[in-house]
Design a protein that fits this description.
By secondary structure, this protein is α/β, with parallel strands linked by helices. It folds into 2 domains: about 20-225 and about 430-460, Glycogen Phosphorylase B (Rossmann fold, 3-Layer(aba) Sandwich), CATH 3.40.50.2000; about 230-430, 3-Layer(aba) Sandwich (Rossmann fold). It contains 15 helices and 14 strands. The strands form 2 sheets. Strands 1, 2, 3, 4, 5, 6, 7 and 8 form an 8-stranded mixed beta sheet that branches. Helix 9 (about 310-320) links the parallel strand 10 and strand 11. The radius of gyration is 22 Å and the shape is globular. The two termini are about 25 Å apart.
């Protein structure tokens, strides 16, 4: 991949004012606005990322004071996009931007077809009908667009669910489409359906170069997802604090905290490949007749835009049967603190998706210092350096997954070293301020403050060139 030089020295100020500063109060209407709770004190982040990095972010934000940044997605809970926006929006507000976040409305049929979009874009097989595309999808988009109005310096629409809003709703200002999905082998029909909409945007953002589909005729940028180090899920707990948080669940499920625990935390989704984790765990236990018997704890929340979750969970429970060493925690109370606490005490974390746009939960586990076993797919490969920050395996290799789990159990010192290096890797690359920094640079570019292309532009495919051919059937 080819990036421009990563420097902001050439950024220049512009006298032009923000679109949101034109006296309008109705910069956002007709959609369901989300207002994250709590207040952000930027000084709290200095202790994490250092004063120099924070000063650079403030310098980038200074000429954007009052300018408007709007994000549109399909759900406020249960997914990585919502997780990031819940922190990125108030962080930008603390920098002086008018940052807003809204979600579109959809019924069961809409979310069924957009889930099908998601699966097909990630390479799954299956049919899709014209009724689904033009009825459940486009009719819902038109219903949302009928009352919608957005006036912003930059509006970012996330993933396929709101993508067609670009040609149906009045959106004033620059627009970007953000793809969080692994579209390295997209279904040709669905990609071709979405492509005319994507090419109506002023640019597109992907997580990594290989996800960029063919036929794009707009500038393309790379932004890696990031975690908020100060969110309850990502705060650092002592073992005593973590056990105190987990005690009610451990007591209710008869979990002995002195036994080693492997955690698997994600949506209940076929691409998350939890069934293979369960097979590998069973293999591990069968081949270890002696020593402390580990637990496998699955944690997953349901999401309004993912109608398949219940079916996947039921299949996993049937597969587990009456095993005494496997637990399923679903929509637990105080979820974020529970997840953070479990990651901090887990002997290992396992995430072996078959397809993965990024795998935000991997960064969360690495940040907590958990030894991570991850699949060699998608954005996980950007987070795990095999043998350095974690272990990489093929997603279907049950023996390899079980072997890495055994290694984590057998060599505590090596596992702890993986955890330390994984945390350092996240610190340098995948924390919230870096995410917001890249959006600030995009706003400067599209507002005319910065003449050059952003340094994270895919230069070789941002002038209308076709990125690559469709994968062969």
């Amino acid at each position: 991949m080819t990036f421009l030089n990563d420097t902001t020295d050439a950024l220049e100020h512009s006298p032009s004012g923000p679109l949101g500063g034109n006296g309008r109060d109705d910069i956002l209407a007709g959609l369901e606005e989300q207002r994250p709770e709590g207040s952000f004190d930027l000084s709290d982040y200095v202790a994490v990322i250092g004063g120099e990095r924070m000063d650079e972010i403030k310098r980038l934000a200074e000429p954007l004071t009052g300018r408007t940044w709007v994000n549109v997605n399909s759900t406020s809970v249960g997914g990585g996009v919502a997780e990031m926006l819940r922190s990125a929006v108030p962080f930008a507000q603390a920098l002086g931007l008018t940052a807003r976040w809204c979600t579109i409305r959809g019924n069961d049929a809409f979310f069924q077809v957009t889930k099908k979009f998601h699966n097909l874009l990630q390479g799954a097989d299956g049919p899709i009908t014209l009724d689904e595309i033009f009825g459940a999808y486009l009719d819902t988009i038109e219903e949302n667009a009928r009352e919608a109005f957005i006036a912003a310096d930059l509006t970012v629409l996330h993933d396929p669910q709101p993508a067609a809003m670009i040609m149906n709703a009045p959106i004033l200002g620059k627009t970007l489409w953000r793809c969080h999905i692994d579209t390295s082998i997209p279904n040709k029909a669905v990609w071709r359906f979405l492509l005319p909409y994507i090419n109506q945007y002023d640019g597109a953002i992907f997580t990594t170069r290989e996800f960029v589909g063919p036929g794009l005729k707009v500038p393309v940028y790379e932004i890696m997802p990031c975690i908020d180090p100060l969110a309850p899920k990502n705060r650092q707990y002592t073992r005593a604090e973590a056990l105190d948080i987990l005690l009610p669940l451990f007591t209710a499920d008869s979990v002995d905290p002195e036994r080693p625990i492997f955690a698997a935390i994600s949506r209940y989704d076929r691409h998350k490949n939890q069934g293979t984790i369960l097979k590998a765990f069973s293999r591990l236990v069968e081949e270890r007749p002696r020593g402390p018997r580990p637990y496998l704890l699955f944690i997953g929340n349901t999401a309004t835009d993912d109608p398949e979750g219940d079916a996947v969970l039921n299949e996993l429970r049937q597969q587990a049967g009456d095993r005494a060493d496997v637990r399923f925690w679903v929509n637990v109370e105080d979820n974020d603190r529970v997840v953070g606490a479990l990651m901090s005490i887990a002997r290992g974390f396992v995430h072996v998706s078959t397809r993965e746009g990024f795998g935000l939960v991997v960064a969360e586990a690495l940040w907590q210092g958990a030894p991570v076993i991850g699949s060699r797919v998608g954005g996980i490969r950007r987070q795990i350096i095999d043998g350095v920050t974690g272990h990489l395996v093929e997603p279907g290799d049950v023996d390899a997954i079980a072997g890495r789990m055994a290694a984590v159990l057998d060599d505590a010192d090596a596992a702890a070293a993986l955890g330390r290096r994984g945390r350092e890797h996240v610190h340098e690359n995948f924390l919230l301020p870096e995410l917001v920094k890249r959006y600030l640079i995009l706003m400067r570019h599209y507002s005319g403050i910065m003449a050059d292309l952003p340094p994270f532009t895919y230069r070789e495919i941002s002038n209308g060139a076709v990125a690559r051919e469709y994968p062969s059937a």
